[in-house]
Specification:
This protein is α/β, with parallel strands linked by helices and 237 residues long. It is 47% helix and 11% strand. The protein has a 5-stranded parallel beta sheet with strand order 2-1-3-4-5, with helices on both faces. Helix 4 links the parallel strand 4 and strand 5.
């Protein structure tokens, strides 16, 4: 990390849910990996495992089932995007926060398409990382400033090239009015917290609506959900 953590683990204002959030850190540089794990543990997260290469990351993640995976992209044995794709495919509830030295647009977009919830550069400070992991665990998209607009732009580009329809494609499932309302706000790029404030409902209720919508539409992650919404013009409604 670029700075040491200044988090007070005894701070009464620190969210109580942190100790319930299971985090796994994957990076091929031992000193960096240990520093990140140490900062997160000091902040109150339950760091359940670390890994130094792709195959090891997949094996350990299957074994310990973390809530949040803090993942580097440049890994020996298996690229980080493939690790992300495999683990999110097996467990759609997994949140993946990419922590990378690369700010290249192609890397960011590839990570998001593989199922990553957020993307943070390694130049971020310890407190920024801690906040990002907390928000990622809550289901919010977290991006280094300047990258969020890039990702939303890619959602829109994908929506102009929809997947081909098949002759036996089933009728689209019916969403409730509230689910449609939440979906529309997700497509506009709002975080779950912002949606909860906008609709005057709890953060947990927003998460439940999103999970129900994913199940009804047979989608796997937020990327696919936003694409679905933009294809139907919900972001302009």
């Amino acid at each position: 990390m670029s700075e040491s953590t200044d988090v007070n683990v005894n701070d009464p204002n620190r969210p109580n849910e942190l100790h319930e959030t299971r985090v796994m850190v994957v990076d091929d540089h031992p000193m960096w990996r240990d520093a990140v794990a140490r900062d997160l543990a000091a902040a109150g997260f339950d760091v359940v495992a670390t890994a130094g290469d792709g195959p090891e990351a997949v094996r350990r993640a299957h074994a310990v089932t973390p809530d949040v995976l803090v993942l580097d992209l440049n890994l020996p044995g298996m690229p980080g995007v493939q690790v992300c794709k495999e683990l999110v495919g097996a467990n759609p509830a997994l949140r993946v926060l990419v922590l990378s030295a690369s700010g290249e647009h192609a890397d960011v977009l590839e990570a998001v398409k593989s199922g990553a919830t957020g993307y943070l550069l390694k130049s971020a400070g310890a407190q920024e990382l801690i906040d990002a992991v907390r928000r990622t665990a809550a289901g919010d998209p977290v991006f280094t400033p300047g990258l969020a607009g890039l990702v939303l732009g890619e959602y829109r580009r994908l929506a102009t090239d929809p997947l081909p329809a098949t002759s036996d494609e089933p009728k689209a499932p019916q969403l409730t009015d509230r689910e449609t309302e939440v979906l529309r706000l997700v497509a506009k790029g709002l975080s779950y917290k912002q949606i909860a404030e906008r609709l005057v409902i709890s953060h947990r209720t927003v998460q439940n609506h999103v999970q129900n919508t994913l199940g009804k539409l047979q989608l796997h992650n937020r990327v696919e959900l936003v694409r679905y919404a933009i294809e139907r013009g919900l972001d302009d409604a």
